[in-house]
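Justification of resources, computational component.

The compute hours requested in this renewal are based largely on the per-chain cost of generating structure records like the one below. Each record pairs the submitted sequence with a full structure-token output. That output is archived, and it is also reused by downstream analysis tasks.
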Amino acid sequence: MKSALLVQTSILLEDWGSLAYEEAFSRQEQLVSELQQGLRGDTLVLVEHPPVVTLGRRASNDDLRLPAKDFSSVNVGLQEINRGGLATAHEPGQLVVYPIVELKIKDLRWFANTFLGVVVAVLKEFGLQGDLKEGEPGVWVEGRKICSFGIAVKKWVTSHGVAINVNNDLSTFNLIVPCGRPQEKVTSVSRELNLSVNMTDFKQKLVEHFLVAFACKLQP
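The structure output for this chain reads:
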């Protein structure tokens, strides 16, 4: 297993709370630049965003169910970004996780599978069985998508990451074609459990599993 080749490293944890996507995107780019210049180490970012739809490199207007010019009228942002993938929705109650890390193992598939494995492990802690689909980024519960995945990699430094539907109401997803598939159903942890989830507990479990999977320890 490639994970056995990892040497334990340290990582800084930053919780940005609720932050506008545009500002978070700018901060990510700054963290990537500083890491590449050796000015800082790896950083794991936790954040929630106000309602916004982001368009990855392969996305187009065909992935939108509302004309782009009308998004402002429903108070939802729309932004093109540099991650892979199609359209993704973000909204309050969804946990977004951005690892800004230099890959010690130069294998993007390994990184993706390990990262998604972290999500599956966390869902299990809350009594849900998360499933992966070969060749499709994300995590599903009984065929309903609960986590989106999309990253950018520059000189083996990653940005972007996963968006896990925890307590969000999923209304922003009505504005997009998830995964480019009109019939794709989305869900959340709270919807599957029929109860509100303690976000602090969810974050803690995610950080714990991330540290184990990637052989990291938190910087004090």
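The first strand starts at residue 9 and ends at 18. The chain has one domain: 2-218.
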